[in-house]
Every structure is written in C-alpha cells, then in structure tokens.
Amino acid sequence: MNLSQLSTAIEAAVAVHLNELGRAQGLLPLNWFVAPSVMSDEDMEAVLSVEGQAGSHLPQHPGRVVDQWAGALGLRPVYPPTPGVHAVEGTLEPQPGEYRFEIRIWGVIDPAALHAQRDWGRWQGQ
Length: 126
Fold this sequence. Notes:
Strand 4 (85-95) and strand 5 form a beta hairpin. Helix content is 32%, strand content 33%. Strands 1-2-5-4-3 form a five-stranded mixed sheet. With 126 residues, the chain is of the alpha+beta class.
C-alpha cells in the first residue's frame, strides 16, 4: 500500500467512524476530509485534524446540518466568520489520553457571498 492509498484508507475510516457517531445522534452524514498530517501534542496524544462538509446534496439546509452537528459534539462557531459559510469547530476526544480529533464542520450557506470574497482559497485547501 502506498502513501496515497494509506491516506485514502484513513480518511474513509474516519468518515465511517464520525458518520456512525452522528447517525446514532440522528444526524445526516457529512463529507469528511483529513488533514495531510497526524501530529502529537506535548503529551504524545495523537491529534488528527478533520473537516466535515455539509454539502448541498443533503435534504436539509447546510446551516441547519452544521448546527445539529455542533450541538451534538459541543462545537463552537468559528470566529471570525467567513462570508457565505457557516462553520463550527472544537475537539472530540473519544479515547482521552490516546487520541483526539480537532474538528471543523462547515457548510456553504450563501455561494455568491463566498465566491465574492478573497478567503475562498482557504476553504479549498489552498
């Protein structure tokens, strides 16, 4: 297995894990993306940064889906907000002392406002 395949497998496993967690809470599934690297903090706890996207394909408004996930996971609004995007962030620690997820969940709520501002590249991983 090469690095690209390993990265894809990790991302798929994280997506399954988080969407199963959400499903148990009655939440719609998100598209999950894993940051390119896994790091450890000063306590040698693994920290995995992930982003969840509430896509426009969902049967509910993306802003509502983001709020539902935020409520279930105890996430807080991202500040300062990006025009056209509703985003929340926080930490999920399923195995305290072993690993944690740094999570950001977002959804585009006003595509025109998002595309009109300069921070668009930030949401595209640039």
